[in-house]
């Protein structure tokens, strides 16, 4: 650790409210490889938190631990200060978390709107049987989900494409739909895995402004290689290297940190 900031989620909470979400002392091993090594990070409401580091540093593994895709070998995950038991990923979504994947990960046979409705499903109240029998309540529920999904598409600027299949859409629009799907769950924590990947300057500028808007109502975690975006939009940044936290701080302090420069330099010289 090279900055003054604490890397303990619980310690960060000592001054007041616990962080919206935290991992504490998390280690993940894949056979002989340690992908995360005693990592502690806290994500706070109203904050955009960047997670950066060279290829293979453990960024995606961290997101996977946060959303329950990956069970840690050691350490705990906390939400609002309370330790979460080991849950299936869909249960964690019910706790107010949503994530996007590297790439897009949309269902090819569903329209953009239907893809986003899958994300909004957390708000469905009708049971399976009522939906199967198409009872009036299920129809009302579906209409409410569609409305919510439309609003999410609107927010990301993809409403005109609601009825299109993902495969017929340009890649940047597919990324927007994937983001809308995560937003439709109305999460308190959103985990974004390389949302700027494959985007041009105009789309990145739109993404930057959207991220700022989102941070007013949720904790945003941004795993991203696009450094200009990260430095422009993040309130705090955690830097991983070989599965360890090597720096935490605001963009200026992280940029000035020699350990961070050395990690990225190592990446360049090993190519
Ligand atoms: N399921 C897995 N099985 C074995 N090794 C894995 C698995 N997932 C990740 N790893 C390894 O764990 C390390 C961390 O991977 P991870 O994908 O978290 O890194 P990353 O920082 O997201 O990399 P990138 O920037 O390239 O996406 C890497 O060495 C990777 O090869």
From TrEMBL:
Domain ABC transporter stretches: 21-267
Gene3D superfamilies attached to this UniProt entry: P-loop containing nucleotide triphosphate hydrolases
SMART domains linked: AAA
Residues in the signal sequence: none
Pfam families documented for this protein: ABC_tran, BCA_ABC_TP_C
Record's keyword annotation contains Nucleotide-binding: yes
InterPro entries: AAA+_ATPase, ABC_AA/LPS_Transport, ABC_transporter-like_ATP-bd, BCA_ABC_TP_C, P-loop_NTPase
Keyword terms: ATP-binding, Nucleotide-binding, Transport
UniProt GO MF annotations: ATP binding
Top-level taxon of origin: Bacteria
Cross-referenced PROSITE patterns: ABC_TRANSPORTER_2 (PS50893)
Name of the molecule in the record: ATP-binding cassette domain-containing protein
């Amino acid at each position: 650790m090279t900055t003054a900031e604490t890397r303990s989620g619980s310690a960060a909470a000592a001054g007041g409210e616990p962080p919206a979400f935290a991992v504490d002392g998390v280690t993940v091993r894949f056979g002989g490889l340690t992908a995360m090594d005693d990592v502690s990070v806290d994500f706070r409401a109203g904050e955009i938190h960047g997670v950066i580091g060279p290829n293979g540093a453990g960024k995606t593994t961290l997101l996977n631990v946060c959303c329950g895709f990956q069970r840690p070998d050691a350490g705990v995950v906390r939400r609002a200060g309370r330790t979460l038991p080991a849950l299936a990923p869909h249960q964690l979504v019910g706790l107010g978390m949503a994530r996007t994947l590297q790439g897009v990960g949309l269902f090819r046979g569903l329209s953009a709107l239907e893809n986003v409705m899958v994300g909004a499903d957390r708000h469905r109240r009708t049971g399976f049987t009522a939906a199967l029998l198409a009872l009036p309540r299920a129809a009302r529920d579906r209409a409410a989900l569609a409305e919510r999904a439309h609003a999410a598409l609107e927010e990301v600027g993809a409403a005109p494409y609601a009825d299109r299949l993902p495969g017929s859409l340009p890649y940047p629009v597919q990324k927007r739909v994937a983001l809308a799907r995560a937003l439709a769950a109305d999460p308190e924590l959103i985990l974004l895995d390389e949302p700027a990947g494959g985007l041009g300057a105009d789309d990145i500028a739109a993404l930057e402004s959207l991220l700022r808007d989102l941070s007013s109502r949720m904790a945003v975690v941004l795993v991203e290689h696009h450094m200009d975006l990260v430095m422009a939009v993040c309130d705090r940044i955690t830097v991983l290297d070989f599965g360890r936290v090597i720096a935490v701080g605001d963009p200026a302090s992280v940029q000035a940190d020699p350990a961070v420069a050395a990690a990225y330099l190592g990446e360049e010289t090993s190519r």
